[in-house]
């Protein structure tokens, strides 16, 4: 079927638009991924080669010993990873439980002062996080929890963001589902557990990813709450790779940094479908 000149020009214009958009997106993707490629390359270099100009993207020679030192040396990342995994896993699990229950209560339960309590709770978001570090430090010190991992876990179990996210999700759910379950004799806990919570799986997965990344990368809280090097988490552990002259050992630091990114990538790959589904659900609403 022959196309008219106008249709040919329109098709050519659309094709050029797609090509130009693709080129721009690939260029942006390369720009964003370049620092990670440099970090991976530097993790296999000698310290003297890390900041060499021009940049050598392919290490020569390849220093696999950097990873051996990072994982089996005096400041082994195994200990830091264990501490971070414990803190992050318990914090995320606790936040998913408390956020889902609180979000359901604020969205679908009726009790005196519900909206006022939620507004007061929401107003705490205006308080800068850094402003709470000193009061938390004094509070946990009086409780005898200073320099313990509980000082990192407990604040992460209750988060305003998680409660707000789940509340907005439950508000958007059809109320007829809960009413039908109640007519069939289901209690409030059964309505929450069997009817509404299964629908919230994509949103819970999205919250889990966001909270995992935030907890895993948290530097300020461990810096204030911990003094024992054996209890350091990964962000603090990255500061331990200092050479004999007191300067940063760049090759070891890059190898440790590459290692610290791997758990985040694994978590995202596991929950990426639910995360995309949560974004799609939020967009439809």
Tally of separate helices: 14
The major sheet is characterized as:
none
Based on DSSP secondary structure assignment, what is the total number of beta strands? Answer: 0
CATH class of the largest domain: Mainly Alpha
Let me know the average pLDDT. Answer: 84
Return the string of H and E elements.
HHHHHHHHHHHHHH
Write a structural description.
With 285 residues, the chain is mostly helical. It has two domains: 5-42; 74-284, Orthogonal Bundle (MetI-like fold). It is built from 14 helices and no strands. The chain has helices spanning 5-42, 47-50, 65-72, 77-108, 114-123, 133-143, 150-157, 160-172, 175-183, 188-196, 201-216, 220-225, 234-237, 250-284. 27% of the residues are buried. The model has no long low-confidence stretch (mean pLDDT 84).
Report a brief summary of the structure.
This protein has 285 residues and is mainly alpha-helical. It contains 14 helices and no strands.
Keywords:
285 residues, mainly alpha, MetI-like fold, 2 domains, 0% strand
Chain-wise SSE layout:
Blueprint: H1 5-42, H2 47-50, H3 65-72, H4 77-108, H5 114-123, H6 133-143, H7 150-157, H8 160-172, H9 175-183, H10 188-196, H11 201-216, H12 220-225, H13 234-237, H14 250-284
Helix pairs in contact: 1-14, 3-14, 4-7, 4-8, 4-11, 9-10, 11-14
